[in-house]
Amino acid sequence: MIRDPRTTAPENAATDPADTPLLAVLRDFEREGFTAQFDSRDGGIVHCFACGADHRAAACHHGDIVRLEGASDPADMLAVIPARCPNCGSLGVLVATYGPDSSAADAEVLRELDRAPAGREDGA
């Protein structure tokens, strides 16, 4: 599921006017316990920086994806993907670009998540 931070702000949403939308979303996830970092790799793979393990994106996906577009540049499109490492259990986020400026690795991870069966976060 995708949540829109403009219409579906969490109860503990950041209120600092200096926050960019991305910083506010990242702080909200951090408050929810998502403190680790993940990265996109070729082939729809997500890399966990906490333990160094690589997994299929669908096996790591753990909650609603937040999509952001830059206010000054609509091409500045980001997806903040909550993730849980199946190896070490760390919770964190992966920030991926989408749209025309997306990297190949980010696009493959997002395609992998689109192919995962609805309602399943483990990709099974």
Distance between the termini: 17 Å
Low-pLDDT stretches are 1-14, 119-124
Task: Kindly state the number of beta strands.
Answer: 7
Oligomer: single chain
Largest sheet: 7 strands, mixed
- Elements, N to C (H/E): EHEEEHEEEH
Which shape, going by the Cα principal axes? Answer: globular
Strand content: 25-35%
Strand order of the largest sheet: 1-5-6-7-2-3-4
Mean pLDDT across residues: 83
In percent, how helical is the residue content? 10-25%
**Over the alpha carbons, how many angstroms does the gyration radius reach?**
14 Å
Count helical runs. 3
Q: Which structural class fits the helix and strand makeup? A: alpha/beta
Can you walk me through this structure?
With 124 residues, the protein is of the alpha/beta class. The protein has a domain of 86 residues. The protein is 22% helix and 28% strand. It is built from three helices and seven strands, in the order E-H-E-E-E-H-E-E-E-H. A seven-stranded mixed β-sheet has the order 1-5-6-7-2-3-4. Strand 6 and strand 7 form a beta hairpin. The N terminus and C terminus are likely disordered.
Features:
single chain; 124 residues; alpha/beta; 7 strands; disordered N terminus
